[in-house]
Amino acid sequence: MTEQELIRACVQKNKAAEKELYLRYSSKVMATCLRYARNSADAEDIMQDVFVRIYDALPQFKYEGSFIGWMRRIVFTIALRKYQRFLYKHEKYNIEAAANIPTDNMSIFDQLSLEELFHLIQKLPDGYRMVFNLYVIEGYTHEEIAKMLTIDAGTSRSQLYKARQLLQSWILAMQKINL
Length: 179
Description:
Elements: H1 3-11, H2 15-36, H3 40-57, H4 67-87, H5 107-110, H6 114-123, H7 126-137, H8 142-149, H9 153-178
């Protein structure tokens, strides 16, 4: 079944098609959810909400652009809502300990596996992680991120800088442990 046929069948509430859509795209959606979630349980919650939203919004899909891109936008929207609800709890992080660390030792980064790097990114405070993912992985500009997160572009730049510094400090600490 083609993607377009699958989408049309889902719009008609065909349960087998809905299951096929989930099976076909769940791993890609989960990978995106994991980038924005604090942990795997949060990512699973986001993914569940994403698929509910996808099934509800399929009639509005215009077949313009990629379907996976359309789904990723839903992932981001739901992850952002979850993040904003989380902010109301006023969680604060003391990360000012991420001091100025030299950036000239890139061999440390070469020694990290993707899994280790992914784990470190997930440990970032929410705001840092969101900006880091949007800028570094998704390729948005600081101005676009500012609009999405309703922050200043300067705040986006600052959070990206601090995220990089914090990641760098963790990586250097790992390097010292492994020596």
